[in-house]
Amino acid sequence: MSKVSVHWFRHGLRFHDNPALFEAINDAERFYAVFIIDGESAGTKTSGYNRAQFLYESLCDLDSELKAVGSQLFIFNGVPAEIFTTLHREAGVTHLSFEQDCEAIWNQRDDDVRRTCLELGMEVIEKISHTLWDPFDIIDANGGQPPLTYEMFVQVAQVLGDPPRALPNPEWDDVIFGEITDELATKLKLAPQVPTPEMQGWTQNGEAPVYVGGERRALQHLKSRLRVEEDAFRDGYILPNQVNPDFLGPPLSMSAALRFGCLSVRKFYWDVHETYNKVNRGQSSATHSLTAQLIWREFFYCMSANNPKYDQMKQNPICIQIPWYKNPDHLKAWEMGQTGYPFIDACMRQMRKEGWIHHVGRTAVACFLTRGDLWISWEEGLKVFYKYLIDADWSVAAGNWMWVSSSAFERQLDCSVCVCPVAYGKRLEPTGEYIRRYVPELASLPHDYIFEPWKAPSKVQEKFGCIVGKDYPKRIVRHKTASKANYKMMKNIRDSLKLAPKHCAPSNADEIRQYLRLPKACFHNIVEGKY
Ligand SMILES: Cc1cc2nc3c(=O)[nH]c(=O)nc-3n(C[C@H](O)[C@H](O)[C@H](O)COP(=O)(O)OP(=O)(O)OC[C@H]3O[C@@H](n4cnc5c(N)ncnc54)[C@H](O)[C@@H]3O)c2cc1C
């Protein structure tokens, strides 16, 4: 049988390390590269403007890479299973390839497509390259259940061995590209060009993203990122992004590129390890700790793979049920960066504007919304993150929210001092420049008051043109009182949970300290669960 193949891009928007694409073009008589606008794929259902823009740039980049080798990215509108049926019947397509999307949210879509292909006698090629390991192998190796702590995950992953190395780009020289007739183009609603976010109904509303999508951009970006890692290895430490959280420097995060697969996670993983080996003269880095953050990503993907209720509290077997408050005013103030706590507001405003904030900023705002201050459900925070973050992933975002909030009843997380919205901000970015950048109404205040403007005497507030309650909001809650009340609620619920159900939780106090990027001095408070 001659092979006429379609590669369906969903995530994995790249040429490099794309095993499904590799196999699709191998010995194909004709080949088509396809993306489908179905209202959901690539997370478009929950997306705001910034993520839609990043996806648009990534698709444009892929389209131009395909044009350079003699083809294009065909962008169809409709239901994937129906589109592949039409392509089979009218363009003679025999093979369909795609990268595994392991999150349970995609099961229905992919099951429909697999079933349709089977009925039509088409061959399906599905390969794993969005994660380092196949999450289902981890689940099998863990006795049929996903590991619920990071430490457990690392142990299981070690049993599976090193992740595979990244594949090179495919060779395009001998590939013959298929064409789409005008009649078929009309049937499949072929987009004449990559549609902009505006063409699909998104409107720009003050957003100013700093990350640009696309494989070529991601690979360039990786080079800068590896230089930072190399400098750290030369200076004798690892995980520079964790050790020195940089709030003010140029954007260096790879998370959006990884989320859309413009960059292969396996390439990132192995490039960091090779950089380490180069600096340490061939000394092997046979440890996952060099790339511990990528293991967190795996951990959350794996946990969600067989749990369609993973992004909600009810009916989610790994989430503790908590009677959170409903307070739309507080929720809105938090979302808009109007809580009266400058560090929290700076983080929320940066996220809305640029589509990204540092991990420690995410932790600060997530604690503040949930167990720390407002006692509002993590599900509400998750919806806001889905809307604004360019790297927002169904599973990674929900997993992190559960870890930070639902695990509230872990005694070790009960430290109001460590995650105080004032002290935490001061420790992470002591100059106050970050607040000045994102909360301009506070920009002229003297440093003494930048983290706590309510402490500025009225004369100072008048002199610097920032009256609290007029130019900048009053605090919506008092951290000291709110966190004390929350602490009591946590304790009562914990006491009532005679046997806590198995839930997503931190492994130990040191992990909490590292995840929250707290200094060693916080260790005692955490261990003792000191209020
Ligand atoms: C409440 C909350 C929600 C989050 N939601 C998301 C999300 O939707 N998508 C997302 O990619 N990250 C999410 N994170 C994790 C983390 O904050 C970002 O991945 C990180 O800020 C990206 O910056 P970086 O690339 O410089 O990270 P680095 O420290 O350089 O890490 C490299 C890569 O590892 C992965 N990674 C790092 N930390 C984590 C983590 N805790 N969990 C999972 N993966 C991680 C990311 O892909 C990241 O790009 C969330 C964190 C919190 C506290």
UniProtKB/TrEMBL annotation:
It is found in: Cytoplasm, Perinuclear region; Nucleus. GO terms for cellular component: nucleus; perinuclear region of cytoplasm. GO terms for molecular function: DNA binding; FAD binding. Its main location: cytoplasm. Residues 3-132 form the Photolyase/cryptochrome alpha/beta domain. FAD binds at Q293, L294, I295, W296, R297, E298, F299, F300, D391, A392, D393. GO terms for biological process: circadian regulation of gene expression; entrainment of circadian clock by photoperiod; negative regulation of DNA-templated transcription. Signal peptide: none annotated. The record marks W324, W378, W401 as: Electron transfer via tryptophanyl radical. It comes from the Eukaryota. Keywords: Biological rhythms, Cytoplasm, FAD, Flavoprotein, Nucleotide-binding, Nucleus, Receptor, Repressor. Binds 1 FAD per subunit. Its cofactor is FAD. Belongs to the DNA photolyase class-1 family. This is Cryptochrome-1.
